[in-house]
Amino acid sequence: MNLILFLATITISLIAVRIGAIAFELTGLRWDVAKFQAISCFTGTGFTTREAEMVTNHPQRRQIASVLMVLGNAGLVTIIATFANSMRPGKLAFDLPFTDAVFPEHLLPWVNLLIIIIFLYMAYRVLTKTELPSKFTDIIRRKMAKDYVAKPFTFEELRIVTGGYGVSRIELHDDTPMINQTIMESDIRNHDINILAVERNHQVTPNPNPNFKILKGDILICFGKLNEMRNTFSPAKI
């Protein structure tokens, strides 16, 4: 029973980290950064100063991190306790006929350890060699975005600057109002936001003029107050 609980806890932990990474991604973090921060929060290790600031300075990310930390502490205790009990001499984790006769009592912990190793290897293969994680991620991402479990902000903070100003890489949603408008028509400059460059089809237009038209699929590199950019480009505004 302890081994079954151990394997179940490992599985739930992997799912929790994946969901946490998706939630971080929906707040504007790159996927690789989101995965790292989810693992860091769940295990309580691995924070870097700059990326930690991107989490701690963002209210929604702090909430996600708090949940992951609580789950991680509970999961770690359960994993350690169930693993230790699985290594104690006793019955095999699974009640199969004649197992007591086949496996002497002192060998049963090693059998349990072999089951754990096989399970971890299979989990690794599933996570790295199949499309199942990607399909699961897409389903959860759509569900969370639809239900606003984690509201998808449309920008990534690239640099934190004193005074609340920073540089952001903004990926416009399909229904963003400024699409098919010029920079002047979008009135973005009245929000204390300056567009430094526009990336379109892997081509960058630096310092676009006020008559430059924003099109679907454009990526904006903007400088301004980070809070103002969050408010301007958040889902509540588009």
Describe this structure in words.
The protein has 238 residues and is α+β, with helices and mostly antiparallel strands. Helix content is 54%, strand content 13%. The chain has a 5-stranded antiparallel beta sheet with strand order 1-2-5-3-4. A hairpin with a 2-residue loop joins strand 3 and strand 4. The relative contact order is 0.11. Residues 93-101 have low confidence and may be disordered.
Highlighted features:
Alpha-Beta Plaits; 2 domains; 5-stranded antiparallel β-sheet; 9 helices; 238 residues; 13% strand; alpha+beta; 54% helix; single chain
Largest sheet: 5 strands, antiparallel
Low-pLDDT ranges? 93-101
Shape: elongated
Work out the helix count.
9
| Total of domains | 2
Short note summarizing the structure:
With 238 residues, the protein is of the alpha+beta class. The chain has helices at residues 2-26, 31-43, 49-56, 59-86, 99-102, 108-129, 132-147, 183-186, 226-233, and strands spanning 155-160, 165-171, 193-200, 203-206, 219-225.
